[in-house]
What we know:
This protein is of the alpha+beta class. It contains three helices and five strands. It has helices at residues 52-63, 68-71, 78-88, and strands at 2-14, 28-40, 66-67, 92-100, 103-108. The chain has a five-stranded mixed beta sheet.
Amino acid sequence: MYRVTKRIEISASHSLKLDYHSKCTNLHGHNWIITVTCEAEKLNANGMVEDFTAIKERVTSQLDHSNLNEVLPFNPTAENIARWICEQIPTCIRVDVQESEGNVASYIKE
């Protein structure tokens, strides 16, 4: 089994739709650290699981320097963002989304 991990940093804003009072319902931004892990039993024709540049491009082209509420069709929590990123990359098995120091959400494909 082959595995690759790509760490990406993006800047983006969001506001959360919550059923309780929170300062996070106001528009605010983060410098997000996103870690994408991909896995394959066989390497592709180029000898890779997934091209690191392609992983970065899939994430940054849609999310970097954006208002996540305007580009994602769901409440942009770190958990939902992690799942969505994983779904964008066929070989992805895990995504970790760190929105601030000490706050990380993970999505692991079953």
